[in-house]
Amino acid sequence: MEQAIINIVVSALVANIGMYIGFINQLRSNVDVLKDNVKKLEERCKGLEDQNKEMQKKFDEISQHYHVIEEKIKRIEQRQDSHSKKSDDFVNLITDFKIEMVKKFGDISSQMSKISSDVENITSTIAVFDDGIRSKNKKKK
After folding, report:
1. What is the helix (H) or strand (E) element at residue 42, kind and residue range?
2. Which of 30, 69, 119, 121 qualifies as a FRET site for 15, CA 20 to 30 Å off?
3. Residue 72 and residue 68: Cα distance in Å, rounded?
4. Strands (E), 34-124
5. Which value, to the nearest 10 degrees, does the dihedral of the CA atoms of residues 17, 22, 27, 33 take?
């Protein structure tokens, strides 16, 4: 009976050792698979980091280009404001000139109408006096 117990214990120990060795081999293979996965992930991370660096460079270039465009737009707006102010000043100057000319021509027009009425008065006066002078002269034959 002792031999039977020893046989059972030895066979249980051998079975357990076999299972243990199988379990260890399975863990080793899982570790190898996980190491491969980690290597692939590290390579992918490096690729993503490189891609991120490239994208950062592109972003920096675009940001710089955007900044340059903003500065150009500001300068264009300032020039446009300056030109608008000059244009407004020029239009105001022309308007003031027109107003002044209208005033001068208005003064001249009123003086001309006064002169015209004076000339009409003189003409009508002369015409009154000319009636006697304009009488028909008989031609001598």
Report:
1. helix 2-133
2. 30
3. 6
4. none
5. 160
**pLDDT score at 69:** 96
Residues in the chain: 141
Find all residues with CB under 8 Å of 134, minimum gap 6, and list them.
none
pLDDT in tens, 59-114: 999 999 999 999 999 999 999 988 888 888 888 888 888 888 777 777 676 777 77
Residue 20 half-sphere exposure toward CB, CA atoms < 13 A: 6
Q: Match 């000043």 to its residue by tokens.
A: 89
Q: Angle CA(88)–CA(91)–CA(97) in degrees, nearest 5?
A: 140
- The larger pLDDT score, comparing residue 119 to residue 22, is at 22
Q: Say what the pLDDT of residue 98 is.
A: 82
Q: Give dist(CA 135, CA 72) in Å, integer.
A: 88
